[in-house]
Write a structure and sequence with these properties.
The protein contains 8 helices and 7 strands; from the N terminus they run αβαβαβαββααβαβα. It has a single domain, classed as Rossmann fold, CATH 3.40.50. Strands 3-2-4-1-5-6-7 form a 7-stranded parallel β-sheet, sandwiched between helices. With 227 residues, it is an alpha/beta fold. The chain is globular and about 50 Å long. The structure holds guanosine-5'-diphosphate and magnesium ion.
């Protein structure tokens, strides 16, 4: 047992060391790096497609896609007009700092303004692993129910920004905005909360403003402030 705990501690320390290296690399390159996490189907890829369509002319963007299997999301991103690099975790429930470091060999970070990382769809494991990102974005969506923050408190507590997607479906669900907001604020009083619909485009401007502001901060060399 003690041996297993010592090994787990060594693995975590190695992961944190690689994440710190990544954070330094991203800061030196002046690139805004965002790590997106959510349950499967909340709309991570949809949000990235809409962001690509609206911001690609102004900002140089790319996506690292993390999936158990297939490159379906990477194909969607490329169709939306920006490069995507697929990592298949082959069963792994989250992306690791080592996988991100290896992926950096596949493109020129210095030629980017914004790098999005779409983590594996899962609200548990990805929340435990720092990837050196400047901001951690957690998505929820109305059909999932309003109780997800209290069921997955670590993800919502550590989020730098929370996106509530699929607000076009509010009337078709029993999702309570007030209950959701209460749960979120109980765990995370200060993170921006952006309500939007990738389907109708409502609320997307606030998200795009957030991305632009974070990109400016990253380009100015401001260090990240991890939770
Ligand atoms: N009604 C509605 N459907 C959406 C919205 N955003 C995404 N979807 C749909 O939700 C499903 C899952 O979206 P996807 O982007 O693949 O989620 P991911 O697994 O988090 O990457 C797809 O069928 C999308 O078309 C939205 O704002 N409203
Ligand atoms: Mg996806």
């Amino acid at each position: 047992m003690a041996k297993r705990i010592r090994l787990a501690k060594r693995v975590v320390a190695e992961s944190d060391r690689l994440a710190a290296r990544l954070a330094e690399t991203f800061q030196q390159a002046g690139v805004f790096v965002a790590n997106l996490m959510s349950s499967p189907g909340s709309g991570k890829t949809s949000l990235l497609e809409e962001t690509a369509r609206r911001l690609a002319p102004q900002l140089r963007m790319a996506v690292i896609e993390g999936d158990l299997a297939t490159d379906r999301d990477a194909q969607r991103i490329r169709k939306a007009g920006i490069p995507a690099y697929q990592i298949n975790t082959g069963g792994g429930c989250h992306l690791s700092a080592r996988q991100i470091l290896d992926a950096l060999d596949r493109f020129d970070l210095a030629a980017l303004d914004v790098l999005f990382i779409e983590n594996v769809g899962n609200l548990i494991c990805p929340a435990e692993f720092d990837l050196g990102e400047r901001r951690r974005i957690v998505l929820a969506s109305t059909p999932e129910g309003d109780d997800k923050p209290i069921k997955y408190p670590v993800a919502f507590n550590k989020a730098d920004c929370i996106v509530l997607n699929k607000i076009d479906l509010l009337a078709a669900t029993n999702f309570s905005r007030d209950a959701f907001l209460g749960f979120v604020r109980g765990l995370n009083p200060a993170a921006p909360l952006i309500e939007l619909s990738c389907r109708t485009g409502e609320g997307l401007d606030a998200w795009l403003d957030y991305v632009r502001a974070e990109r400016r901060a990253a380009a100015s060399g401001a260090p990240r402030t991890p939770k």
